[in-house]
């Protein structure tokens, strides 16, 4: 399972890319593999304010539902509308076209490094 | 011949095949079963378009043998099995006196006995129930579950694939008929039944024959399919799943399987009075099929609401791979007719009642 080194991670299997105070968030390759074929993504409204740890939506596969949690606090400045019609992007390209939303960070949180996340995956397997 | 993993979960004789095929194995009804191999959607499609192969060895096989075998089965199931010919099978419910459902089963009539196929999760409960209510009869109730493995070969190519391995003439075998024969030189009960809405066969074989046959069918083009696809397929076909649509609190009439309840049958069956009364007085709830019209997927246990009032519960729901829409079944109060809301994670989403099944194959 790919765990890109330039990203940060949560224990609930989201990834985070922070650029100029904006966090782009998605779910990891491991998470999409566990879920299987993603068929629906529930997204928050643009402008919504989230605290770190808030549940902000869900990713559904044919068989399962997985809640999504905000890795950092902030305002939702963009959601990936492509996922409405093409939720499979999460399976195909979880770290790229399958990104889920962008948050203007107002509240930092503890995130895992790639190495720590890999360790977590090993522990869970 | 059932292997037990770490003292808790049981494994079917096909466990090694599943592992080799890269299956994701999950605990299911006390068994370690494959939920998917490559992916639910691809497996689902293989069954609709070509052929899929399921390991359903976890199901239970209970044989009724002896002079009173038919009387015993008649007493226990809702279907009038005296109308079955030897070589025929019938879907039926097993009820409590209250009319609530113990299990839904397949009854096979053989020349000398009856085979009742039960759900894996209910096996022990069923056998105890069967024995409790037939103790006064001259019948032996034998749990043969460990003596049989069960493979389901399903899909439009199932007949063609299976015919390569058996001398039995499959084109002459009608739906819900079965025959004892050989498949690839191995003893098998060949049954034209299934749980996918497609044409197909279920093969009862000895445990040591399961893996060789599994490999043969895969080589011949059948796609291994797991419990995930089995669930989306049966839901598209509008079929009940015990624990979802059916349970001890729900009668077969409420769950929409009245076709398997013969209230007029001569020999009385357990629950008959309660079901008769229910039919006269009207159902307290009824099963309906629905399509979600808003965005979201309804799931088991999500509430059904009308004007903000809860009027039922979703019993099964998924994204239909064939239709590309979110579909589901719900038990709702009588009078709920055309539309309602399904409450998905506290969000009411409109849904429309549609006739069942959601998917019907084109007959040849």
TrEMBL record, chain A:
One GO process term, biological-process aspect: protein lipoylation
Annotated keywords: Lipoyl
Residues bearing PTM N6-lipoyllysine: 63
InterPro entries: 2-oxoA_DH_lipoyl-BS, Biotin_lipoyl, GCV_H, GCV_H/Fam206, GCV_H_sub, Single_hybrid_motif
Cofactor(s), names only, from the UniProt record: (R)-lipoate
Gene3D superfamilies given in the database record: 2.40.50.100
Coiled coil: none
Domain Lipoyl-binding: 22-104
Highest taxon listed in the record's lineage: Bacteria
Entry's Gene Ontology cellular component terms: cytosol; glycine cleavage complex
Record note on cofactor: Binds 1 lipoyl cofactor covalently.
NCBIfam families xref list: gcvH, PRK01202.1
Protein purpose: The glycine cleavage system catalyzes the degradation of glycine. The H protein shuttles the methylamine group of glycine from the P protein to the T protein.
Quaternary data: The glycine cleavage system is composed of four proteins: P, T, L and H.
Family from the record: Belongs to the GcvH family.
Protein name: Glycine cleavage system H protein
Organism per entry: Rubrobacter tropicus
TrEMBL record, chain B:
Gene Ontology cellular component list: cytosol; glycine cleavage complex
Keywords: Aminotransferase, Methyltransferase, Transferase
Keyword Aminoacyl-tRNA synthetase (UniProt): no
Residue ranges constituting the GCVT N-terminal domain according to the UniProt record: 14-265
Function recorded in the entry: The glycine cleavage system catalyzes the degradation of glycine.
HAMAP family: GcvT
Protein name: Aminomethyltransferase
Lineage of the species this protein comes from: Bacteria, Bacillati, Actinomycetota, Rubrobacteria, Rubrobacterales
């Amino acid at each position: 399972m790919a765990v890109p080194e330039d990203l940060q991670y949560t224990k609930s299997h989201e990834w985070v890319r922070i650029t100029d105070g904006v966090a782009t968030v998605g779910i990891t390759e491991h998470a999409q593999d566990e879920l299987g074929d993603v068929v629906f993504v529930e997204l928050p409204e643009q402008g919504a304010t989230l605290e770190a740890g808030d549940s902000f939506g869900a990713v559904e596969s044919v068989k399962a539902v997985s809640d999504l949690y905000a890795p950092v606090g902030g305002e939702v400045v963009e959601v990936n509308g492509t996922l409405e019609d093409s939720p499979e992007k999460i399976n195909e390209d979880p770290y790229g076209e399958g990104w889920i939303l962008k948050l203007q960070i107002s509240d930092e949180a503890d995130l895992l490094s790639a190495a720590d996340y890999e360790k977590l995956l090993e522990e869970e397997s | 011949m059932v292997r037990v993993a770490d003292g808790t979960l049981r494994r079917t004789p096909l466990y090694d095949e599943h592992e080799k095929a890269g299956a994701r194995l999950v605990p299911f009804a006390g068994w370690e079963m494959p939920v998917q191999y490559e992916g639910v959607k691809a497996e689902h499609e293989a069954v609709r378009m070509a052929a899929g192969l399921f390991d359903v060895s976890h199901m239970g096989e209970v044989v009724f043998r002896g002079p009173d075998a038919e009387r015993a089965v008649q007493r226990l199931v809702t279907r009038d099995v005296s109308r079955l010919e030897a070589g025929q099978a019938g879907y039926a419910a097993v009820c409590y006196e209250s009319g609530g459902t113990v299990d839904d089963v397949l009854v096979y009539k053989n020349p000398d006995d009856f085979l009742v196929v039960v759900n894996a999760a209910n096996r022990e409960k069923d056998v105890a129930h069967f024995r409790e209510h037939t103790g006064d009869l001259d019948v032996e109730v034998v749990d043969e579950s460990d003596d049989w493995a069960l493979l389901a070969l399903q899909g439009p190519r199932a007949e063609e694939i299976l015919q390569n391995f058996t001398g039995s003439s499959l084109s002459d075998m009608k739906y819900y008929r079965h025959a004892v024969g050989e498949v690839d030189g191995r003893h098998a009960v060949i049954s034209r039944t299934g749980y996918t809405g497609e044409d197909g066969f279920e093969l009862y074989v000895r445990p040591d024959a399961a893996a060789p046959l599994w490999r043969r069918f895969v080589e011949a083009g059948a796609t291994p399919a797991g419990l995930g696809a089995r669930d989306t397929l049966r839901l598209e076909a509008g079929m009940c799943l015990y624990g979802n649509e059916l349970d001890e609190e729900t009668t077969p009439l409420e769950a929409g399987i009245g076709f398997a309840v013969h209230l007029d049958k001569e020999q009385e069956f357990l629950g008959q009075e309660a079901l008769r009364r229910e039919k006269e007085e009207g159902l307290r709830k009824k099963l309906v099929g629905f399509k979600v019209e808003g965005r979201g997927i309804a799931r088991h246990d999500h509430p059904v609401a009308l004007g903000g009032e809860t009027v039922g519960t979703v019993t099964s729901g998924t994204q239909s791979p064939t239709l590309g829409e979110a579909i589901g079944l719900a038990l709702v109060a009588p009078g709920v007719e055309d539309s309602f809301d399904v409450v998905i994670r506290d969000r009411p989403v409109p849904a429309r009642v549609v006739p069942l099944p959601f998917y019907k194959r084109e007959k040849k």
